[in-house]
Amino acid sequence: MDFNFLTPITIGFFTAFIMGPVFWVLLETSITKGFKAAVAFDLGVMFADACFIGVCYLGSFQLLEDDQNKQGLFVLGGTILLLYGLFSWINRNKKSKDQPEIQETKENYFGLAAKGFAINILNVGVFIFWGGVTIVSSPASGKSFTSFVLFFSIVLLSYFITDLLKISVANRFKSLLTGKGIVIVNSIVSLILIVSGVVLILKGA
Protein backbone atom coordinates (compact mmCIF):
# COMPACT_ATOMS: atom_id res chain seq x y z
CA MET A 1 0.00 0.00 0.00
CA ASP A 2 1.38 3.37 -1.07
CA PHE A 3 1.04 5.49 2.06
CA ASN A 4 2.72 8.78 2.93
CA PHE A 5 3.44 8.74 6.67
CA LEU A 6 4.90 12.26 6.69
CA THR A 7 1.55 13.98 6.06
CA PRO A 8 -0.34 12.64 9.12
CA ILE A 9 2.76 13.09 11.34
CA THR A 10 3.01 16.74 10.25
CA ILE A 11 -0.72 17.35 10.82
CA GLY A 12 -0.54 15.82 14.30
CA PHE A 13 2.56 17.81 15.27
CA PHE A 14 1.17 21.21 14.28
CA THR A 15 -2.29 20.44 15.70
CA ALA A 16 -0.67 20.09 19.14
CA PHE A 17 0.31 23.77 19.03
CA ILE A 18 -3.10 25.25 18.25
CA MET A 19 -3.64 27.87 20.96
CA GLY A 20 -7.12 26.86 22.12
CA PRO A 21 -8.52 26.38 25.65
CA VAL A 22 -7.26 22.78 25.79
CA PHE A 23 -3.68 23.90 25.06
CA TRP A 24 -3.59 26.18 28.10
CA VAL A 25 -5.52 23.92 30.47
CA LEU A 26 -3.13 21.08 29.58
CA LEU A 27 -0.12 23.22 30.53
CA GLU A 28 -1.83 24.41 33.71
CA THR A 29 -2.63 20.83 34.71
CA SER A 30 0.98 19.77 34.15
CA ILE A 31 2.32 22.67 36.21
CA THR A 32 -0.14 22.50 39.11
CA LYS A 33 -0.97 18.77 39.29
CA GLY A 34 1.95 16.93 37.74
CA PHE A 35 2.89 14.85 34.71
CA LYS A 36 0.50 11.92 35.24
CA ALA A 37 -2.47 14.21 35.84
CA ALA A 38 -1.74 16.09 32.61
CA VAL A 39 -1.47 12.82 30.67
CA ALA A 40 -4.86 11.72 32.05
CA PHE A 41 -6.37 15.06 31.00
CA ASP A 42 -4.80 14.72 27.54
CA LEU A 43 -6.19 11.21 27.06
CA GLY A 44 -9.68 12.65 27.57
CA VAL A 45 -8.92 15.31 24.98
CA MET A 46 -7.67 12.68 22.53
CA PHE A 47 -10.80 10.58 23.02
CA ALA A 48 -12.94 13.61 22.15
CA ASP A 49 -10.82 14.20 19.04
CA ALA A 50 -11.28 10.56 18.03
CA CYS A 51 -15.05 10.95 18.44
CA PHE A 52 -15.03 14.06 16.26
CA ILE A 53 -13.02 12.31 13.56
CA GLY A 54 -15.36 9.30 13.66
CA VAL A 55 -18.42 11.52 13.34
CA CYS A 56 -16.84 13.38 10.42
CA TYR A 57 -16.09 10.08 8.68
CA LEU A 58 -19.69 8.96 9.04
CA GLY A 59 -20.82 12.15 7.32
CA SER A 60 -22.49 13.85 10.25
CA PHE A 61 -20.29 16.87 9.57
CA GLN A 62 -23.15 17.88 7.26
CA LEU A 63 -24.97 18.95 10.43
CA LEU A 64 -22.80 22.06 10.45
CA GLU A 65 -23.76 22.96 6.88
CA ASP A 66 -27.04 24.30 8.27
CA ASP A 67 -26.28 27.79 9.60
CA GLN A 68 -28.93 27.55 12.32
CA ASN A 69 -27.49 24.29 13.65
CA LYS A 70 -23.98 25.73 13.59
CA GLN A 71 -25.06 28.90 15.41
CA GLY A 72 -26.90 26.92 18.08
CA LEU A 73 -23.88 24.69 18.70
CA PHE A 74 -21.58 27.70 18.93
CA VAL A 75 -23.83 29.38 21.52
CA LEU A 76 -24.26 26.19 23.57
CA GLY A 77 -20.57 25.32 23.60
CA GLY A 78 -19.56 28.93 24.23
CA THR A 79 -21.96 29.31 27.14
CA ILE A 80 -20.65 26.19 28.86
CA LEU A 81 -17.02 27.24 28.36
CA LEU A 82 -17.85 30.72 29.67
CA LEU A 83 -19.54 29.33 32.78
CA TYR A 84 -16.65 26.92 33.41
CA GLY A 85 -14.18 29.77 33.01
CA LEU A 86 -16.12 31.93 35.48
CA PHE A 87 -16.27 29.05 37.96
CA SER A 88 -12.50 28.53 37.62
CA TRP A 89 -11.89 32.26 38.10
CA ILE A 90 -13.98 32.36 41.29
CA ASN A 91 -12.13 29.34 42.73
CA ARG A 92 -8.60 30.24 41.57
CA ASN A 93 -7.51 31.43 45.04
CA LYS A 94 -9.01 28.40 46.75
CA LYS A 95 -6.94 26.07 44.55
CA SER A 96 -3.68 27.61 45.70
CA LYS A 97 -4.67 27.37 49.37
CA ASP A 98 -5.66 23.73 49.00
CA GLN A 99 -2.29 22.92 47.41
CA PRO A 100 0.42 25.11 48.95
CA GLU A 101 3.16 22.77 47.76
CA ILE A 102 3.18 21.54 44.18
CA GLN A 103 3.94 17.86 44.07
CA GLU A 104 2.84 14.60 42.52
CA THR A 105 -0.20 13.52 44.51
CA LYS A 106 -2.95 10.97 44.03
CA GLU A 107 -5.32 12.61 41.58
CA ASN A 108 -8.71 11.61 40.25
CA TYR A 109 -7.32 10.61 36.86
CA PHE A 110 -10.71 9.57 35.51
CA GLY A 111 -12.11 12.94 36.52
CA LEU A 112 -9.24 14.72 34.78
CA ALA A 113 -9.80 12.66 31.63
CA ALA A 114 -13.51 13.52 31.78
CA LYS A 115 -12.58 17.20 32.16
CA GLY A 116 -10.35 17.03 29.08
CA PHE A 117 -13.08 15.28 27.12
CA ALA A 118 -15.74 17.79 28.19
CA ILE A 119 -13.71 20.93 27.41
CA ASN A 120 -12.75 19.57 23.98
CA ILE A 121 -16.10 18.09 22.98
CA LEU A 122 -17.91 21.35 23.82
CA ASN A 123 -15.67 23.40 21.55
CA VAL A 124 -17.47 23.47 18.19
CA GLY A 125 -14.36 25.00 16.65
CA VAL A 126 -12.54 21.69 17.23
CA PHE A 127 -15.35 19.83 15.44
CA ILE A 128 -15.08 22.20 12.47
CA PHE A 129 -11.29 21.86 12.50
CA TRP A 130 -11.38 18.07 12.30
CA GLY A 131 -14.10 18.25 9.67
CA GLY A 132 -11.85 20.47 7.60
CA VAL A 133 -8.85 18.19 8.14
CA THR A 134 -10.94 15.18 7.13
CA ILE A 135 -12.01 16.86 3.89
CA VAL A 136 -8.65 18.39 2.96
CA SER A 137 -6.66 15.24 3.75
CA SER A 138 -9.05 12.86 2.00
CA PRO A 139 -6.67 12.37 -0.99
CA ALA A 140 -3.86 11.38 1.41
CA SER A 141 -5.98 9.35 3.84
CA GLY A 142 -7.58 7.31 1.08
CA LYS A 143 -11.18 6.27 0.55
CA SER A 144 -11.03 2.89 2.28
CA PHE A 145 -11.89 2.60 5.97
CA THR A 146 -8.54 0.91 6.72
CA SER A 147 -6.54 3.74 5.13
CA PHE A 148 -8.64 6.34 6.95
CA VAL A 149 -8.12 4.67 10.33
CA LEU A 150 -4.37 4.29 9.72
CA PHE A 151 -4.01 7.91 8.62
CA PHE A 152 -5.81 9.44 11.60
CA SER A 153 -4.30 6.98 14.06
CA ILE A 154 -0.91 8.35 13.04
CA VAL A 155 -2.25 11.91 13.30
CA LEU A 156 -3.49 11.34 16.85
CA LEU A 157 -0.36 9.42 17.88
CA SER A 158 1.86 12.23 16.59
CA TYR A 159 -0.40 14.74 18.36
CA PHE A 160 -0.19 12.78 21.63
CA ILE A 161 3.61 12.37 21.52
CA THR A 162 4.00 16.12 20.93
CA ASP A 163 1.67 16.78 23.87
CA LEU A 164 3.83 14.55 26.08
CA LEU A 165 6.82 16.73 25.22
CA LYS A 166 4.80 19.87 26.06
CA ILE A 167 3.68 18.34 29.36
CA SER A 168 7.24 17.36 30.23
CA VAL A 169 8.57 20.86 29.54
CA ALA A 170 5.75 22.56 31.49
CA ASN A 171 6.21 20.13 34.37
CA ARG A 172 9.79 21.35 34.83
CA PHE A 173 8.50 24.79 35.78
CA LYS A 174 6.32 23.62 38.67
CA SER A 175 9.15 23.87 41.21
CA LEU A 176 9.48 27.58 40.39
CA LEU A 177 5.88 28.38 41.32
CA THR A 178 4.76 29.66 44.71
CA GLY A 179 1.15 29.83 45.88
CA LYS A 180 0.88 33.24 44.20
CA GLY A 181 2.29 31.78 41.01
CA ILE A 182 -0.41 29.11 40.95
CA VAL A 183 -3.08 31.81 41.30
CA ILE A 184 -1.59 33.66 38.32
CA VAL A 185 -1.57 30.50 36.18
CA ASN A 186 -5.14 29.64 37.19
CA SER A 187 -6.24 33.22 36.49
CA ILE A 188 -4.71 33.23 32.99
CA VAL A 189 -6.33 29.90 32.07
CA SER A 190 -9.69 31.03 33.48
CA LEU A 191 -9.56 34.22 31.40
CA ILE A 192 -8.69 32.22 28.27
CA LEU A 193 -11.70 29.96 28.85
CA ILE A 194 -13.96 32.99 29.43
CA VAL A 195 -12.72 34.76 26.27
CA SER A 196 -13.02 31.54 24.23
CA GLY A 197 -16.60 31.11 25.44
CA VAL A 198 -17.50 34.71 24.56
CA VAL A 199 -15.94 34.33 21.09
CA LEU A 200 -17.96 31.18 20.41
CA ILE A 201 -21.18 32.86 21.61
CA LEU A 202 -20.53 35.87 19.33
CA LYS A 203 -19.92 33.54 16.38
CA GLY A 204 -23.28 31.92 16.98
CA ALA A 205 -25.18 35.16 17.63
Task: Give an overview of the whole structure.
- With 205 residues, this protein is mostly helical.
- It has one domain.
- Helix content is 78%, strand content 0%.
- It has helices at residues 6-15, 21-33, 35-57, 67-90, 92-98, 109-121, 124-136, 138-141, 145-171, 179-204.
- The radius of gyration is 18 Å and the shape is globular.
Task: Give a quick rundown of the structure.
By secondary structure, the protein is an all-alpha fold. It contains ten helices and no strands.
Topology, number of strands? 0
Gyration radius, in Å:
18 Å
Query: Helical percent range?
Result: over 70%
Q: Could you tell me the strand content as a percent range?
A: under 5%
Largest sheet: none
How many discrete domains? 1
N-to-C span? 47 Å
> What structural category arises from helix and sheet content?
mainly alpha
Q: Unreliable segments (pLDDT under 50, ≥5 consecutive)? A: 95-105
> So what's the overall shape?
globular
How many helical stretches?
A: 10
SSE order, as H and E? HHHHHHHHHH
Mean pLDDT: 76
